[in-house]
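Worked example 3. Consider a protein that binds FE2/S2 (inorganic) cluster.
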Amino acid sequence: MSSKKCSTSTSIGKKQIMGVTGLLLCGFVLTHLLGNLTLLIGSDAFNKYSHALTSNPLIYVAEVGLLALFLSHIVMAIKLTIENKKARPIAYHTYTKSGRGGDFASKSMAISGLITLIFLIIHITGLKFGTHYDTTVGGIEMRDIYKTTVEYFADPIHVVIYLVAVITLGVHVSHGFWSAFQSLGLNHPKYMSKIELASKLFGVVIAVGFSALAIFCFTRGGH
Amino acid sequence: MSGNKAGSMSLNLKVWRQKNAKDKGAMVDYKLDGISPDMSFLEMMDELNTKLVKEKGDSIAFDHDCREGICGMCSMMINGQAHGPESQTTTCQLHMRKFKDGDTIVVEPWRAKAFPVLKDLMVDRGAFDQIIAAGGFINVNTGNPQDANAILIGQENAELAMDAAACIGCGACVASCKNASAMLFVSAKISQLALLPQGEIESEARTQAMVAKMDELGFGNCTNEAECEAQCPKGIKIENIARMNREWFKGAIGSRN
Ligand code: HEM
Ligand code: SF4
Ligand code: FES
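Given these inputs, the predicted complex is written out as structure tokens:
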């Protein structure tokens, strides 16, 4: 009974990296949603929140950390998906699901992940690296990210792309959140059904929450 | 329905035919009359083979042994489901009354890189033996059967270990998993030992070794779909996979191997 392989290159090792990074990303997404709720309060609140984040020198540490999370999640996703395709070189003539196993979300993890990735790039270039305006709140000069945001979402095409993306992300995490617990072995017959339910709810909160914010911005008509 | 006795069925079968491991293979259509709904699926296949032999054809090779749902040999993908449409039932225990007169039934071998087709519906499941050989045992000589209560085992663990030990190594989990992952099988073998005092001692090293072998043999990775659990003829639960993941993690950070 011995194995010489590095733990992170084994199937379970990769799955557990996927799980940990996935859960941390879930944490990020939730924090991002909660932070963005300041949009509902008004331009000053949102700008102040954004300024507080971006003016903190620790933001670079956080950004590098976040990038590392995404990269490890994506690298593992690609490796696992390629291995999974290789494991069945000849497809079945007929393949029928029992209907008691996977659901839409679990079947489409790779696709929903890929859509999320493409969206991320659009999202960051459109907002973080979008049009730059300046404003002054309480005597402090700062970026008017509120203006950038509402202008961005005044375009219905942007809203539609955004809705599709956040609903896709909602679907991704509705399986992913639960799946991470299973991958990490944090399974208990008593709690597992609750974690599964929490996972679905989490997916709904993400999809509905971000959608609502985008629609709210759209209704501002660019102001 | 030519020449059928009352209540008997006519079937259109689409069966995978492949001369040997190197042959490309193809689906071949057969018509079969006079099948009784009381026959098992394997008896139906026997009827087809009798007919093929009478017609001087080559009979279809398929694995079978006990024909009572305990040996795990009768691997067949039936209409796209491992062991056919009935839950918790092996092919040999599946009856033709589950099908209708005039049905088309597609019969294929398990498909996985680690389970190469030898001939027709027969695959080489030796990969499972290799995984067991990598660590699915305990290293102490247990000697003669002990007095029943010499080692006390909690009722719950005894039940769970027994449930895991119900795995017959049939490979339906691999066959029905979209990733051809063997994790349900491996986790059942790991669990049946990890849950009992004799097996628990080596659990971390065992899990590391069996998982490494499983990976080496080219099985895919679990994506927690639970299709394996749904198709397993013995109702093995994916709870076992979580236990394996846990044991593996403990080993990854704690084991010297
Ligand atoms: C904010 C973005 C994201 C979040 C919150 C997230 C979250 C998660 C979580 C929690 C899991 C479950 C991990 C497990 O089963 O152990 C997961 C799995 C997965 N993710 Fe993501 N993910 C995100 C982005 C992405 C991206 C960008 C990709 C691909 C380009 C991706 C591809 C996948 C794949 C393929 C799986 C399935 C892995 C498996 O089940 O084995 N994800 N994700
Ligand atoms: S876990 Fe179930 S499906 Fe897999 S080999 Fe064991 S009995 Fe067969
Ligand atoms: S022939 Fe033994 S389980 Fe089916």
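Take a moment to read the result before moving on. The longest strand of chain A covers residues 134-137. Chain A touches chain B through 47 residues (CB under 8 Å).
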